[in-house]
């Protein structure tokens, strides 16, 4: 693993256009060899887009493997590139939507697109940010990822095991909380709401944290455009949260669906989004 990290350090000297070329054969090889993950991606697309042809779904997954390979190769840039280079590589749009609430608590709704890591590093140059961190199984990778997240000395990292109290504490001085709630974390703290028409176990944390902290919810979407990235902020949500936590959670999923339709190959399709099923329903993944 130390050699892999050293290799990423070497690669960070290369322009994104060269990393893109390197990612094509790596992505194709991963698509061929990672049979289980390939099947997960195809099952997700069949569930979410039954109207698409099988050829289109396979094309999207092939593109997604390339995008994931590219993200992996770009970790060296996230960990080692200068702040000036990060600013050149990532353009931020509508940052004023966030800045106007500097004296209030804010939750940044931030779904899993392939640009989420590099764009949040870029945002961290503008703002102190709080986020949840999951420990990695490999201690070397875990240390590197954690150090990377803290490289600008203005991040507040909360362990996933710490719970809501630590999140609220991290936000107490109006530090924006970057929240990625669009994966299947199991039945605990989740409810079933539609995601592209399929009942999906979805955590209700966005609504609950917003209510407890009296926070504004401001979505932000990272997008890879050619050989650079764009991070786009959206206006703060009105009338959120409500007393209907299921409606709040469905509103979140609906927003994410709209953004996925704009860049389907960049969403995290290799995650088992529908792993948890309502009682009595058959599993989708073998």
Compact description:
This protein is 47% helix and 17% strand. It is an alpha/beta fold.
Structural write-up:
This protein has twelve helices and nine strands. With 286 residues, it is an alpha/beta fold. The protein has one domain: 3-Layer(aba) Sandwich (Glycerol-3-phosphate (1)-acyltransferase), CATH 3.40.1130. It has a seven-stranded mixed beta sheet, sandwiched between helices. It has a two-stranded antiparallel sheet with strand order 6-7. It is globular, with a radius of gyration of 19 Å. The two termini are 30 Å apart.
The SSE order reads HHHHHHEHEHEHEHEEEHEEH
The N- and C-terminal alpha carbons lie at a distance of 30 Å
- The number of strands is 9
| Overall tally of domains | 1
Strand order of the largest sheet: 1-9-8-2-5-3-4
Proportion in β-strands: 15-25%
Over the alpha carbons, how many angstroms does the gyration radius reach?
19 Å
By secondary-structure content and strand pairing, the structural class works out as alpha/beta
